[in-house]
Every structure is written in C-alpha cells, then in structure tokens.
Design goal:
The complex is a heterodimer of chains A (about 160) and B (about 240). With about 160 residues, chain A is mostly helical. Helix content of chain A is about 90%, strand content about 0%. In chain A, helix 1 crosses helix 2. Chain B is globular, with a radius of gyration of 21 Å. Classes of the chains: A mainly alpha (about 160), B mainly alpha (about 240).
Chain lengths: ~160, ~240
C-alpha cells in the first residue's frame, strides 16, 4: 500500500507545507480581501440605493400632498367664485327686471293717456260731424238751413242721452 | 512496498518527477506535489481571476467565487461566532485546498493527494496543534478545565478526565483518517469496478453503470469531505475559543 511507504512522507509533507503556505498567503492577502471588498461595496450600494429610494418616496409623498392641497384649494376658490357669480347674476337680473317692469309700466300709462286723448278727440269730432250731417240732412229735407245753435243743442242732448 | 502494475492501489503510487533533497531529507517533486501545485494554482485562478471584474452584478464565475466565500463565511459565523473572523482565511484555505485536491483526484490519470495519510494527518496535526495553542494562549491554565465536564460530580474525575483527554488527543487521528479513508476507499472501489468492465465482456455493462453512478457519488464525497474537514476545524476552534 503506497500510503504506508514512509520514504515518501518527507517529500509529501514538504510540498504540502509549501503549497498550502502559498495558498494561505494568496487567500489572506489577495483573494479574501478582494471578495470581501466586492461584497461590502455591493452591500453598501444596495443600502445606498434603498436609502435613496426611501428619500424619493418621501419626496413623492410630499409632492402628492402638495398637489392634493392645491386641488382642494382650487376647488374651494372655484366654488366661492361660482357662488359670487351666481349672487351677482341674481342681483343683476332682479335689477334689470325691475327696470324693465318700470319702463313697461311707464309705456302702458303713456299709451293709456294717448288712448284716452284720442277717445276725447274722437268724441268731440263726432259732435261736429253729427252737426254737419244733421244740418245738411235738414237742408235737404226742408230746403232751408237750420239754425246752427238749435242743431247743436239737439245733438248735445242726444249725446247726453246716449252716454 | 511493491505494488503490481494493475492493482487497484497502483493509482496511489507516488512517482518522483524531479529528484530534490534538502539537507538529508528527500523533498523530490512528485506527482503528488504536482497536483498540489495545480490545486493551489486553480484555486487562485478561480478566486482571483473570477473576481477581477469587481462587478456589482456578478457573472456566473464571480458568483461561484462569491458563493464559496459566503458559504464558508456563514459556516465560520454559525459555528465559531464573530471571533472566528480572524481565522476565516485559514479555514477558507483548508476547505478550498481539500475540495480542489479531491476534485483534481477525480480527473482520470491524475492523483488524489488527499488519499494519503501523510498529507491528511499533517493537515489535521497542524489544525490540532494550532487550535491547542490558541486555546492555551487565550485561557492559560484554565484551558485544562476543558477536560473536566461541567456539572459532573468530582468523584467521577478519575474516570472522566482520562476519557476526555483521550477523546481530545484522538481528534487529529479521526480528522485525518476520515478524509484519507474516504478518498482511498472511493478511488479503490472505482478502480476495482472499472476492472470488471473489461473482464466481464458483454456483462461489463453492469459494472460500467455502477462506475458511472459511483463517479457521481465520488464528486459528492469530494465536496462533503472538504466540508466535514472545514466544519470540524471550526468546531475545534470554537472549543478552543469558548472552552465549554
């Protein structure tokens, strides 16, 4: 069994020591620090990014809040503007209506006065026409023009009886 | 001890490649030494070249290098605690050395230096002596309380102390024999069944299938034994740092 051949032991142990010492030095001075470095910087970077993300999230939340506040404010101001406008409109409309009603009323009374004037004028002209008609009718029937004052008083009494 | 050319044990023979002597000691560069050098070079390449990009988002290779680091770092943290950080490079080296040594042994016509008791016992003895020195430096004479289990009645001491001392002293033996025997048995078994493939003719398909399955198992064992060696080193270190 070659494992029990003691003559090979010194060489095996010597080379084991040499190679393992070399490996340990490489590990200790190069490989382990290098890997640890990469792992650490990755960990740091991940934490960094997480921190940044949290910060951004906070910013976003603040922005959302500001936006919501702005919207609520705008809504409130719009509501108040609408209310004001509605009120203004209502008062304007009432005033205009009142003015129109007044104007119409004035027009109506004016027209009524004109109508009554026209009526009196018409009534007085009826008397003249009646006198003319009566005079010319009497003249045609009798052949002689009647006295104007007699005709006038007869018409007056007839008109009085009518009205 | 002479070994026949096609014996299953022929694969464990140590062949001198470059004869060398230091003083009166034979320090020849052998096939075993060659695989050790290859092991160290491949570990260095795997870890150092794999990490050369320093990528924040690792590729496959860098990911494997990082995973092996994290695997051992977690193991050290879980078994030893935060004091274990100092010893992490050593334990990582032990794990990678045994793992890559075992894996190099799986290459056909290569050599499994972990199947030699001289190698595994040297490593186990180094771990044992190192751990004992750490314990002595940290706890001074108090270290010897380790051999008397806490809470045991004092009249049991004559029985308990020898048992504890023997179990402590047998640690390097169990640590080295476990690895050596696993590798020796696995490689011998592979070779024996591989021999049947030819000699059984058409029926050789059965041992062939067995050899294929066994090769897969040997890869698992290669990893498992490296893990066991490293975790036992951690446990011994934990005992040294914290006693009970």
């Amino acid at each position: 069994m070659p494992q029990l051949d003691i003559s090979t032991f010194p060489s095996q142990i010597f080379w084991l020591t040499v190679t393992f010492a070399a490996l340990f030095l490489i590990m200790w001075k190069v490989a382990v620090p290098r890997i640890a470095d990469v792992l650490e910087s990755r960990q740091r970077r991940i934490e960094d990014n997480l921190d940044k993300a949290a910060e951004f999230k906070k910013d976003a939340e603040a922005a959302i809040e500001a936006y919501e506040n702005a919207i609520a404010e705008a809504r409130a101001s719009a509501q108040s503007t609408i209310n004001e406008m509605a009120q203004n409109l209502a008062t304007d409309m009432a005033a205009q209506e009142a003015a129109l009603a007044e104007k119409l009323q004035a027009r109506i009374s004016e027209s009524e006065a004109a109508i009554s004037d026209a009526k009196t004028a018409a009534i007085s002209s009826i008397r003249d026409v009646a006198q003319d008609v009566a005079s010319s009718a009497v003249e045609k029937l009798v052949g002689d023009a009647p006295d104007a004052s007699v005709v006038g008083s007869a018409i007056d009494s007839a008109l009085k009886a009518r009205s | 001890m002479a070994v026949e050319k096609h014996s299953p044990l022929a694969q464990f023979e140590i062949k001198e490649l470059i004869p060398m002597e230091i003083g009166s000691l034979d320090a020849s560069f052998t096939n075993s030494s060659l695989v050790m050098v290859l092991t160290v070079v491949s570990i260095a390449a795997f870890l150092v070249l794999g990490m050369r990009k320093h990528a924040h988002v690792p590729g496959r290779w860098q990911s494997m290098a990082e995973l092996s680091y994290i695997f051992i770092a977690n193991m050290v943290k879980d078994t030893v605690g935060s004091e274990g950080r100092t010893y992490f490079p050593f334990i990582f080296s032990v794990f990678m050395f045994v793992l890559f040594g075992n894996l190099w042994g799986m290459v056909p016509y290569s050599f499994a230096f972990t199947s030699h008791i001289a190698v595994t016992f040297t490593m186990a003895a180094f771990v044992f002596i190192g751990v004992t020195l750490i314990a002595l430096a940290k706890h001074k004479m108090h270290f010897f309380s380790f051999f008397m289990p806490q809470g045991a009645p004092i009249y049991m001491a004559p029985l308990l102390i020898p048992i504890e001392v023997i179990s402590y002293l047998s640690r390097p033996i169990s640590l080295s024999v476990r690895l050596f025997a696993n590798m020796l048995a696995g490689h011998t078994l592979l070779k024996v069944f591989a021999g049947f493939v030819i000699s059984l003719g058409a029926l050789g398909v059965l041992p062939l299938l067995f050899v294929v399955a066994l090769t897969g198992l040997e890869f698992v064992i290669a990893f498992l034994q490296a893990f066991v060696f490293a975790i036992l080193t951690c446990l011994y270190l934990n005992d040294a740092l914290h006693l009970h």
